[in-house]
Amino acid sequence: MTTISLPESTIKQLHDFFLLIDEDADGLIGHADLQRMFKSINYDIPVEEVRQMIKDAGPDPTANTINFNTLLSVMDERLNQFSGKDDLNSALLYFHGDSEKEIDAVTFSEYLASINQNDPESQKAIKMVFSEFSKAKEITGEVIFNYTKFVNQVGQDE
């Protein structure tokens, strides 16, 4: 059995996430569950890509579903690949300067996209991250990447 190193609060969030996607409450996430979830966030994803996600996630490449324990193991492995919060803040300092706590989302996303321009998977991931962590300022309409929220959500405590 795999030991999970995620904090209890993250496990709870992942469990809530799992229950949200598992609309039929059968304890499994399948293709239809993932398709509904992506559709709900206005993310158009081919059925084949959803099937591949499930195959890649589970220990059995022929499986059509994953359970919570599989999701937890995958997320534990993936989340532990991220840098620490201090490292992320240092890296993002380049884009926001010492005193400014905002990053122009358009410039930042264009920079990241230019690095991975030949990788469609990276492009999709960048779009998903920016749709989750960016918003327009009410007065100016300028789109800002909320790097503090991003660092707090994906960065590891050191």
Automatic annotation (TrEMBL):
Q: Which GO terms describe its molecular function?
A: calcium ion binding
Signal peptide boundaries? none
Q: What PROSITE patterns does its record include? A: EF_HAND_1, EF_HAND_2
Q: Which InterPro entries match?
A: EF-hand-dom_pair, EF_Hand_1_Ca_BS, EF_hand_dom, Myosin_RLC
Tell me yes or no: is rRNA-binding among this UniProt entry's keywords. Answer: no
Listed A to Z, the keywords are: Calcium, Repeat
Start and end residues of each EF-hand domain: 9-44
Can you say what this protein is called?
EF-hand domain-containing protein
Which organism is the protein's source? Babjeviella inositovora NRRL Y-12698
From which lineage does this chain's organism come? Eukaryota, Fungi, Dikarya, Ascomycota, Saccharomycotina
